[in-house]
């Protein structure tokens, strides 16, 4: 069973579909249940459970993981990719104080570590399991336009790469999908393209990324796969 935490109509749903087509039961978690019926109907032939929870909140994360285990079964794989298109936005690092830099750590890195804290012991006990994360290209290359998001992206990337190295002899896989560009069909793509920003960023196909995620899960060799639609990186 795969738990997709932070599912949306873009990459999260593509991940669920790709793993579901391999026989995985899917547990989809998002902040609200407003689109859950659409998600279930789009996953034809896939056993799907849906849950409403903010996985960046520790109490809600703990509760939803317990519900998933009780109702959908033991969690073999977790995909963690929450993104809030209505968030506070990005502050340039040249204008950011410590609190502005801290914010993305609290909403991205800390929840990822909490998730690992809760699911990894069971995986290690079984000697199997996988942890997949979605990260940003600003965690690998300097991208000033992404300001306060960059330090947290870098921290998440190194957290996952280090997990991969620490776990690879213990039966548990950790990998990160490092993404540079908008995800087609995703919420951030929808919000961004609703306004004229004076430029058109590259767009990535979530099905292609999900296909690579499945390959990484099966082969368990690569700690990272990079996807970019940004020319000058």
Number of strands: 9
**End-to-end C-alpha gap:** 36 Å
* Run of helices and strands: EHEHEHEHEHEEHEHE
Can you list the strand order of the major beta sheet?
3-2-1-4-5-6-9
The percent range for strand residues is 15-25%
Main sheet attributes: strand count, strand direction, barrel closure:
7 strands, parallel
Short description, anyone?
The chain contains seven helices and nine strands, in the order E-H-E-H-E-H-E-H-E-H-E-E-H-E-H-E.
Topology:
Blueprint: E1 2-5, H1 11-20, E2 26-30, H2 36-42, E3 48-52, H3 58-72, E4 77-80, H4 98-126, E5 129-136, H5 149-167, E6 172-180, E7 182-183, H6 187-193, E8 203-204, H7 206-219, E9 224-228
Parallel strand pairs: 1-2, 1-4, 2-3, 4-5, 5-6, 6-9, 7-8
Helix pairs in contact: 1-7, 3-4, 4-5
Structure description:
With 233 residues, this protein is α/β, with parallel strands linked by helices. Helices cover 43% and strands 19% of the residues. The strands form two sheets. The protein has a seven-stranded parallel sheet with strand order 3-2-1-4-5-6-9, sandwiched between helices. The chain has a two-stranded parallel sheet with strand order 7-8. Helix 2 (36-42) links the parallel strand 2 (26-30) and strand 3. Helix 1 crosses helix 7 and helix 4 runs parallel beside helix 5. It is globular and about 50 Å long. The protein starts with a strand and ends in a 5-residue tail after the last strand.
